[in-house]
Design a protein that fits this description.
The protein has about 270 residues and is α/β, with parallel strands linked by helices. The chain has one domain: Spore Coat Polysaccharide Biosynthesis Protein SpsA, Chain A (Alpha-Beta Complex), CATH 3.90.550. The protein contains eleven helices and twelve strands. A seven-stranded mixed sheet has the order 6-5-4-7-10-8-11, sandwiched between helices. Strands 1-3-2 form a three-stranded antiparallel sheet. Strands 9-12 form a two-stranded parallel sheet. Helix 4 links the parallel strand 5 (about 60-65) and strand 6. Helix 3 (about 45-50) packs parallel to helix 4 (about 70-80). The longest helix is centred in the C-terminal third of the chain and has 25 residues, at about 235-260. The chain is globular and about 45 Å long. Mean pLDDT is about 85; it is low at about 1-15 and about 260-273. GO terms for molecular function: transferase activity.
């Protein structure tokens, strides 16, 4: 699934070394990494976002949500090779799905455009993936993580919804509604995203568990939005998240009722009889 080469090994085998990108003094990788940034009127924040991105990433995909400011122009000035994709629908989920479809990298990283995420943390996410994880999930509440941008009510809501998901789906998450995540491209075939709003992170977190993918939480620090105001609405979007949880739970029960007995179980029954 992944390819890792230590710098010393790269020097020892020069014919192969050209395929690897040094990402730190201790790690080099072969898989190209795509970073997806959904943005709508975030021109003032993009300088902070792009400044923190590591220079070894393969591509940056900016999904423009019909911005009325110069978001696209600023992005191209900051990262001349940026791939700009126009969003035809509405909502964060729709924007991310659009961006994922435009990616060419083997690893995809989701980063918000408000300046709240530290692009330097991408190294931790990618390291987890090339070490064996399928999905590297950012967590503000894992040991070493933190947040400067959540009210008590939002923290309480996130904890409650996270507890429900853990109990209903057998997950062990410490955070549920966080948009800083990374995964292997092949995961998209197994989670089949079909939502449009801020509930997209919750849907991803549930479906990777249902698909049996290996998840590793990455401690992450969420900073305050630098400029502008968020489109997130705690009550409205919290209800949408709850609706997704209930729908996924209902779908899981329906699949269990329709699932035929496994061939192995049938064989065991035959041996017993």
């Amino acid at each position: 699934m992944s390819s890792v080469l230590q710098p010393a090994a790269a020097e020892q085998y020069p014919p192969t070394a050209g395929k690897y990108r040094p990402v730190s003094s201790h790690l080099a990788i072969a898989p190209p990494v795509s970073v997806v940034i959904p943005a709508m009127n975030e021109a003032a924040n993009l300088p902070y976002v792009f400044k923190s991105l590591p220079d070894w990433i393969h591509e940056v995909v900016l999904v423009d949500g019909n911005s009325t400011d110069n978001t696209v122009q600023v992005a191209r000035e900051l990262w001349p090779e940026v791939k700009v994709v126009e969003q035809r629908g509405k909502g964060k989920g729709d924007a991310l799905i659009t961006g994922f479809q435009a990616c060419t990298g083997d690893i995809i990283v989701m980063v918000d455009a408000d300046g709240s995420a530290d692009g330097g943390e991408i190294l931790s996410y990618v390291s987890a993936l090339v070490s064996g994880a399928d999905f590297a999930k950012g967590s503000r509440f894992a040991n070493g993580g933190g947040t400067d941008d959540m009210t008590f009510i939002r923290k309480l809501g996130n904890w409650a919804l996270c507890t429900v998901v853990n109990r209903k789906f057998g997950a062990r998450y410490t955070d549920l509604c966080y948009g800083y995540n990374a995964f292997w491209r092949h995961c998209l075939d197994k989670i089949d995203l079909d939502c449009t709003g801020f509930e997209v992170e919750t849907l991803m977190n549930i479906r990777v568990v249902k698909a049996g993918l290996k998840v590793q939480e990455i401690p992450s620090h969420e900073y305050l939005r630098i400029h502008g105001t968020s489109n997130l609405r705690a009550v409205r979007d919290g209800l949408r998240v709850l609706r997704v949880i209930l729908q996924e739970r209902s779908n899981r029960r329906a699949l269990r009722r329709r699932s035929p007995q496994s061939p192995m179980l049938d064989a065991m029954r035959g041996e017993v009889s």
